[in-house]
Write a structure and sequence with these properties.
- This protein is of the alpha+beta class and 519 residues long.
- It is 34% helix and 27% strand.
- Strands 6, 7, 8, 9, 10, 11, 13, 14, 15, 16 and 19 form an eleven-stranded mixed sheet that branches. Strands 4-3-2-1-5 form a five-stranded antiparallel sheet.
- Helix 2 crosses helix 10 and helix 13 crosses helix 14.
């Protein structure tokens, strides 16, 4: 029966070849000549051919076939060709720095070639001595353009300052690019943050998230509402296609069911936005933490008395609520080995050093001792509810007193049991550390927290379930780790340590989280 199936299979591909040979540019034949595939070569990654045939797209292991036809690549002088498109925030500094670091790590020479007529397009050539081994072709524009290039099958890697949107996921699936919402299709390579910026002489020092939304929506348009001068507020934002600007709308306006007001000044780059705010005494900008120039960064506050400052540690732990993950998206097809090695490098410790030097926040897990978390505990004391709240806070403090918090937080999508994109990346980061034996001989405690809505007992139960779900996700991802060498436990303290005021849906969402504490 097996021989019969093999014969039918071979005959099928011979028929396919006969039908399409006249119009196609490659023919792949098995070593024994029994199977023949004819079609248009879509790609070759040094190991596998991707061929479009009359009956659909096929991926064929190159080790088992011979290629003939004018479209066949050279097997001896193969050069990996990788197209990268999207966000200028990522593409102008961070990705070039990572490629150069990757080249050095692998004893390769990197050379940047820029197109004279289009500075937004450039190529990094990686050489082993005089021999090219790969080319990274960049199209630096914005997140929208990156996803458009992906959907047009013109990008192997998309640089994005926001998550892919449902309509883009649908279009990608229809185009045969796979489920781009799947955790395997994206990774967070670094963190930035959205920060409110004003001119250095502006007397206002703090705004709440609600205040910012009211200004963005045009409901408040004078600084006097916040204790400033009696002067109109000019709002400065990045362009409408900027991932950072779109993330602002997704994170701030949509949860508040608000729309952006009409009087907004748009800027083509972070640098242009910062320069405009620095010279506008009545301006308010939402910019990038990585580039604030000569502006003043406002503290985020709330009616419950919280004070939240943008700093490397608060962004890394996601205590600062407007953290902006920097994504790389890849379609469901094989990259050349060089591309896969590069993506693996982006999670490595040497890459995290490159990310820090480039001015962004890395994702290397760090242990934060309790004495560096005074602001968090002070905020918790301020909003503790009656004697029962203080007792819960004391119990939590006793339990965590001699432990350190890891700089990895986990949150869930609104109204869902699914981890959000940053948290899914954190799962992989922690799983990699467990596989590397980083925490051998130590104990990791998955600690769940909730918002303050509803009965305390119910919140504690929900927080425990969330912590258990994160632990199970990490255990599943760390498939090569020896988990007998590390202790993984679950604890929960419900509403004992909120990270934002509970007066809004946004604040309650921030408070529902899982932290990792280690001893």
């Amino acid at each position: 029966m097996a021989h019969l199936r093999a014969a039918i299979f071979a005959a099928l591909f011979i028929v396919i070849g006969a039908l399409g040979a006249a119009a196609q540019d490659v023919t792949l034949r098995s070593r024994d000549g029994a199977i023949e595939i004819v079609g248009t070569l879509l790609g070759f990654d040094g190991e596998f051919y991707r061929v479009e045939t009359e009956f659909g797209e096929l991926t064929v292991d190159g080790s088992g076939v011979n290629c003939t036809g004018f479209g066949c690549p050279s097997l001896i002088d193969f050069v990996a060709e990788i197209s990268v498109s999207g966000s200028a925030t990522i593409g102008r500094v961070l990705m070039p720095a990572l490629i150069e670091g990757f080249a050095l790590r692998n004893n390769l020479i990197s050379e940047r070639l820029t197109e004279k007529d289009d500075p937004a397009r450039f190529t990094y050539v990686l050489r082993d001595g005089d021999k090219p081994v790969g080319r990274f072709h960049f199209h630096v524009s914005n997140t929208d353009e990156g996803f458009a290039d992906l959907l047009a099958d013109e990008a192997d890697i998309v640089m994005a300052m926001r998550e892919i949107r449902p309509d883009e996921v649908r279009q990608a699936r229809e185009a045969g690019l796979g489920d781009m919402a799947d955790s395997r299709r994206s990774r967070v390579i670094a963190l930035d943050a959205m920060v409110p910026l004003v001119e250095a002489g502006n007397p206002v020092v703090a705004l709440s998230i609600t205040d910012i939304v009211r200004v963005l929506a045009g409901r408040v348009d004078n600084w006097s509402a916040f204790g400033g001068p009696d002067a109109p507020i000019t709002v400065h934002l990045r362009g409408a296609q900027s991932g950072l600007s779109q993330a602002m709308e997704d994170r701030l306006l949509r949860p508040a069911r608000a729309e952006l007001g009409a009087s907004v000044v748009r800027h083509a780059s972070n640098r242009a936005l910062v320069a405009a705010v620095a010279s506008d005494p009545f301006g308010l900008g939402l910019g990038s933490f990585s580039d604030t120039g000569l502006t003043k960064t406002l503290v985020l506050t709330g009616p419950c008395g919280f004070q939240l400052r943008a700093a490397r540690r608060t962004i890394k732990t996601e205590d600062y609520p407007l953290t902006a993950p920097m994504f790389l998206y890849v379609p469901a097809r094989r990259l050349p080995a060089l591309g896969r090695d590069f993506l693996a490098y982006t999670r490595s410790t040497p890459a995290q050093i490159v990310i820090r030097r480039a001015g962004f926040v890395d994702q290397e897990p760090e242990a934060v001792p309790m004495d560096l978390q005074g602001d968090r505990f002070a905020n918790a004391v301020l909003v503790a509810k009656d004697a029962g709240g203080l007792e819960s806070l004391q119990a939590m403090t006793r339990a965590l007193l001699r432990k350190q918090r890891l700089s990895l937080s986990f949150r869930f999508e609104a109204g869902s049991a699914r981890l959000d994109a940053q948290s899914r990346s954190n799962v992989m980061q922690l799983a990699s550390a467990l596989e590397a034996g980083t925490f051998d001989g130590r104990a990791l405690h998955f600690v769940g927290f909730s918002d303050g809505a509803g009965p305390a007992a119910g919140n504690l139960t929900i927080a425990t379930r969330r912590a258990t779900a994160v632990r199970e996700a990490v255990e599943l991802a760390a498939d090569t780790a020896d988990l007998s060498r590390v202790t993984l436990s679950v604890q929960a303290f419900g509403e004992a340590m909120p990270m934002a005021c509970d007066d809004s849906a946004w604040g309650r969402q921030v408070n529902r989280r899982v932290e990792i504490w280690v001893d």
